[in-house]
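Researcher: I'm preparing a figure for a lab meeting and need a structural model of a single chain. I don't have an experimental structure, so a prediction will have to do for now. The sequence is pasted below. Please return the structure as tokens so I can convert it later.
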Amino acid sequence: MFEHVFAPIRIRDMELKNRIILPAMGTRMADENGAVTDKLIAYHAARAKGGCALNIVEVAAVHTPSAPAHFVSISEDHLIEGHRRLTDAIHENGGKAGIQLWQGSIAASMDPKAQMLVVSDMSFGPYTLPAITKEQIREVIACYGKAAARAVEAGYDCLEFHLAHNYLPHSFLSAGFNHREDEYGGSLLNRARLLFEVLDAIKETCGEDFPIVLRMSGSERDPQGNTLEDMKRLIPYLEKHGVDCFEISGGTQYERCNKIIPCHGEEEFTNLKEARAIKEITTKPVITVGKILDAQLAEDVLEANEVDGVVLGRALLADPDFVEKAEEKRYDEIAPCAGCGVGCVGEQTKRRPASCVINPLAGRELEFEEKPTAEEKNILVVGAGIGGLAAARILAKRGHHVVVFEKEKKAGGQLNLACRAPFKQEISKWIVYLLQECDRYGAEIRYETEANADVIKAENPDVVILATGAEPIVLPVEGKETMIQANDVLSGKVPILGGNAAIIGGGMVGIETAEYVLHHSRGAARAALIEMTDSIGQGMVPNNLVPTMARLRQENVQMITGARVKKIDAGTIIADTKKGEMKYPGFTHVICAVGSKAWNPLYEEIKDTYETYVIGDAKEVAQALEAVRGAYELGYRL
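Model: Understood. Here is the structure written out token by token.
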């Protein structure tokens, strides 16, 4: 069925057993000095063992002064030993190993100790960061060559040169960033001079036969940036300078981050158009990255000869065994990426290692050994939201007898509301997957069953896990009785088919509610977000926030910040602001979306009778990532 996905492919003299490649995603799993850790080795080994043909090790810094902490580095000889252990682990598990050579430009600012190198003078408020000098350019080029030599010594099978996303080489290439007036600026070929010189330095140290993959933005998707036609013009030159395979990405790191790591609302195979166009003009293999989540879709694209290989990033974070399961036709067992960005992107914005909502074991492979329980227990889980289902899945898989009580007619909890917002329907995949897994491992789910002390006693459990979720906060202001709860709007309980809706609370739920109201209106509709902090969408992943804010502006959503609501009076909202008391009149509906609080009425009543645990929002309101993480940590402990 997947004869094209699982057909071998050659990149120069390197043969890959199939056409699925793990890209160089930053994980922050290296140590403070950029050395390879056991954590990083186990992460890569799991994906090689799961069937991936080529693991490209992430964004490896080539230049020590600009290497940020906790990002992989290959800028010094003493780091080779760790890389050798990593390549050995990938090879022992049946895969090939590549490494991406990288100089991060202003991305180095993630570490205040790291040097920032920029193509042209760049202003940061009252300060100006000067452009990289020619002497520094020569230094960086030499570092690429030396790093390439170390990679060969460490046992890598190929190298990838990162020419995308406004890191230093791409900043030189981009007309939007490069304003130099020397031989490295001006025309397209002048702007490409640095990358040609880097490729030549790599080839000089690695030899002509060592495979070189180039990651490039097929289009920056920015009016000031390079277009597809610009990149097509460069292909013959890149081939001449030794590129053996083109990996097509897109977007820019700061203006179009949602095109680099496409999340909610972005199409699958985001960069296929550009990859297809480049494949038409080169004889080298062309692979592409960008929200490739489905094995059958990958097969269809390969069968149509639109690309030669597919690069699966977050899909392999979600399930390291994705490839093996697809090959064995175990499709329902694949843990699905929903394109949320919460674990893979969001955790790193908080300076934490990458993770995944549906697979919080990503990067923690050494901490959890999946083995049967030594003692089977009768375990009752109260609540079939994502946390409760995740706990039920892992406990049943390990051999416990698990029953789940769910008071509603269907599972899902808060996710049933979240996936009703426009562009977020993909989230429902998590619930479908967890229900199938619970069924596969024998966890019983009893719907329309509300737990109380007597019902629990009749079940005679050894362990009770309370995953009862959260309830909305009611804003304690005068006129609160006229408010509608956002949950009631998103569930369809209170339809709003038109008018002028004010949503108090400009966080993620408030934004979802505004978009839902506008999407489902049957007449003229307007929406306003009123937020007490200074920004809308606080805590949202940038890759979702950027397109969301664009949609809100396109829909003319009024966004009021720094406004603490104190009264609601006949459609007028009265709030305290930095300018004093302000009145915002003319609303037909006032919706409350100021957050939730833990709802856990059973714990005190049963804690002395049973071994009792509380997980998810019932313990502390957070995101789905924390709910599933807590469920898995408990599930492996019991």
